[in-house]
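Try this one yourself first.
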């Protein structure tokens, strides 16, 4: 907003100011939505000048517009020390962009066994076909990951807490081991966002987010981002451009709108999730609640050490019963819809099977597993809905 010395504000204040540079807003509060492919040049001299500096202003739609730069700046600004951010049309596209920015044929890559399933599919499908060897590792390995690092190891991929089962990784210990061997670290930070886990401050080189989740926050757009530190930014930027990755202006506008309320929403999501997790833990149909925010969870201490708050998501393991018994519960829930994704204002529930997406570790449960996203409804209403559903499950499974 000013070209003077960088001002330092609390993160909530920064989220309100982010991306609202006067060059982008032209004097209104929100950056206008630029629908653009062609950008035109007045003179040959101007054209020649732009050819020399394609990133210094409007050039061609794919390379960005003020709408896009505003969101990229906002995401970069969520880290104290990020060099830049590129947008992608989905979180999975952003994951692919991050790997392709870093890996070449013959590389070895270490991937947390609890990574989001499409990350595993991307690794075992595309990366493998390109000659990149992907090895999955126990997410709880911590500093012992140094034993898995080889001379040809290019990158270590983390996701914390892990998908579906929410194991918290010792990211600082893994980063320290990686730095000793000059290995690039990538984290999928979708669960926490930089607000709850400032990943680059923890030494991570590249952060991937599915903006579809908390940044957009309203279940109405898909987008992903890759944010990098100074060393990796040129590779990330060049790769995104060469792959032709970009996001549509109306979706970017929605994501930017989401940024303004992100902190408030996350705070409320977290409060409700912890209250709900603690309540359902008391139900006799529940064998376990996979929620590192609850005291007594095996990952609670690490979560408390590194995270600045809880997010919306946890899982419950049911005490016996079969998958088909879930129908009695989920078919009649009034506030939890069944569907993929999370991060929107509305609560979601999803039957999941973690044992089918693990290869380096074993996972088993005494009954079906449900992943729960607590939306912005009243917590007591959500708890009552789940408790009644658990009663129905118990009766069906008896
Ligand atoms: C949803 C999700 C993604 C993929 O994002 P899309 O925008 O749906 O492609 C990646 N990582 C995690 C952890 C996710 O939850």
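Now uncover the answer:
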């Amino acid at each position: 907003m000013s070209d003077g010395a960088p001002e330092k504000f609390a993160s909530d204040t920064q989220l309100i100011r982010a991306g609202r540079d006067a060059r982008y807003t032209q004097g209104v509060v929100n950056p206008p939505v630029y629908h653009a492919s062609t950008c035109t040049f007045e003179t040959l001299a101007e054209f020649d000048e732009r050819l020399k500096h394609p990133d210094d202003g409007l050039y061609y739609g794919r390379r960005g517009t003020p709408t896009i730069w505003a969101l990229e700046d906002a995401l970069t600004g969520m880290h104290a020390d990020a060099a830049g951010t590129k947008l992608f049309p989905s979180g999975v596209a952003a994951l692919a962009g991050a790997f392709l920015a870093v890996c070449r044929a013959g590389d070895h890559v270490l991937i947390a066994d609890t990574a989001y399933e499409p990350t595993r599919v991307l690794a075992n499908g595309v990366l493998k076909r390109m000659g990149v060897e992907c090895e999955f590792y126990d997410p709880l390995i911590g500093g012992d990951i140094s034993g898995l690092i080889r001379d040809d190891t290019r990158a270590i991929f983390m996701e914390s807490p892990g998908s579906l089962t929410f194991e918290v990784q010792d990211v600082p210990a893994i980063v320290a081991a990686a730095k000793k061997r000059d290995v690039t670290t990538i984290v999928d930070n979708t669960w926490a966002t930089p607000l709850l886990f400032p990943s680059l401050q923890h030494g991570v080189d590249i952060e991937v987010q599915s903006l579809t989740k908390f940044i957009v926050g309203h279940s109405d757009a898909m987008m992903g981002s890759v944010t990098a530190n100074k060393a990796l930014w040129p590779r990330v930027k060049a790769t995104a451009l060469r792959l032709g990755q970009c996001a549509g202006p109306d979706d970017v506008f929605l994501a930017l709108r989401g940024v303004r309320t992100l902190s408030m929403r996350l705070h409320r999501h977290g409060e409700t999730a912890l209250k709900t997790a603690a309540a359902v833990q008391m139900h006799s149909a529940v064998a376990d609640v996979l929620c590192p925010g609850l005291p007594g969870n095996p990952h609670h201490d690490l979560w408390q050490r590194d995270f600045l708050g809880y997010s919306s998501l946890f899982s419950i393991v049911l005490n016996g019963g079969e998958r088909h018994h879930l129908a009695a519960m989920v078919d009649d829930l009034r506030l939890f819809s069944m569907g993929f994704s999370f991060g929107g204002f509305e609560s979601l529930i999803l039957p999941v099977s973690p044992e089918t997406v693990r290869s380096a570790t074993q996972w088993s449960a005494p009954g079906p597993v449900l992943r729960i996203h607590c939306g912005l409804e009243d917590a007591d209403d959500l708890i009552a809905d789940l408790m009644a559903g658990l009663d129905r499950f118990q009766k069906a499974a008896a």
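Discussion: The first strand starts at residue 84 and ends at 88. Residues 249-281 form the longest helix (33 residues).
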